[in-house]
């Protein structure tokens, strides 16, 4: 993993509490930021589909991003460790397709307007139904579902910092999932 920062002093770099663990050389899996971020987008991820025996092993989770050619700015491990996969002055490929506020500016373009954060964990059976059957979901120990207190603490600190530095309002219209 590359651990250097390539930001200039005029670019927003990386949350100070993050471990820099860039995907590729910091330029792979991302492109130059075109717009200042207006949103923080929160997701969840795991390696539950490909590695159900160890769904939260960070090497497997990280490889999932590489294999799918997607990326995220930050990922928060179960112990609360924040990793930076893509520096904030780059656009990560995390948002997918969709609409926001029925505004064409954001339709299929939320990557361009947001900082992405992943929590390592599994959502509800309904959340996970996109990735596995309910029967497969039920095979996981219930203690593996959801998120940890350490993650919530790290997420709060990270979102507060991002919103402060980018002047993003800390409300449900700008911090979204």
Q: Could you outline the blueprint of secondary structure elements for this entry?
A:
Elements: E1 18-20, E2 30-32, E3 39-45, H1 58-68, E4 74-76, E5 82-84, E6 90-92, E7 114-120, H2 125-128, H3 134-138, H4 149-166, E8 175-176
Parallel strand pairs: 1-5, 3-7, 3-8, 4-7
Antiparallel strand pairs: 2-6, 4-5
Query: Which residues sit in consecutive blocks of at least 5 with pLDDT less than 50?
Result: 1-10
Percent helix among the residues?
A: 10-25%
Q: Please give the number of β-strands.
A: 8
User: Per DSSP, what share of the residues sits in E-state strands of 2 or more residues?
Assistant: 15-25%
Instruction: Enumerate how many helices there are, as a single number.
Output: 4
Could you give the order of the helices and strands?
EEEHEEEEHHHE
Structural class: alpha/beta
Mean pLDDT across all residues, rounded?
90
Strand order of the largest sheet: 1-5-4-7-3-8
Largest sheet, if any?
6 strands, mixed
Q: Write down the overall geometry.
A: globular
Looking at the chains present, what oligomeric state does this protein adopt? Answer: single chain
Alpha carbon gap, first and last residue: 28 Å
Radius of gyration: 16 Å
């Amino acid at each position: 993993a590359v651990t250097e920062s390539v930001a200039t002093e005029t670019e927003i770099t990386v949350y100070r509490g993050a471990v820099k663990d860039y995907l590729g050389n910091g330029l792979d899996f991302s492109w130059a930021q075109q717009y200042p971020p207006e949103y923080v987008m929160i997701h969840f991820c795991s390696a539950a589909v490909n590695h159900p025996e160890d769904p939260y092993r960070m090497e497997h989770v990280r490889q999932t991003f590489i294999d799918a050619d997607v990326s995220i700015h930050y990922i928060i491990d179960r112990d609360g460790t924040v990793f930076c996969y893509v520096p904030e002055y780059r656009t990560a490929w995390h948002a997918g397709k969709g609409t926001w506020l029925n505004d064409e500016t954001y339709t299929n373009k939320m990557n361009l307007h947001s900082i992405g954060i992943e929590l390592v964990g599994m959502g509800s059976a309904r959340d996970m139904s996109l990735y596995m059957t309910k029967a497969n979901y039920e095979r996981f120990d219930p203690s593996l579902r959801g998120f940890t207190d350490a993650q919530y603490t790290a997420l709060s600190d990270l979102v507060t910092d991002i919103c402060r530095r980018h002047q993003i309002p800390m409300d449900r219209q700008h911090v979204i999932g």
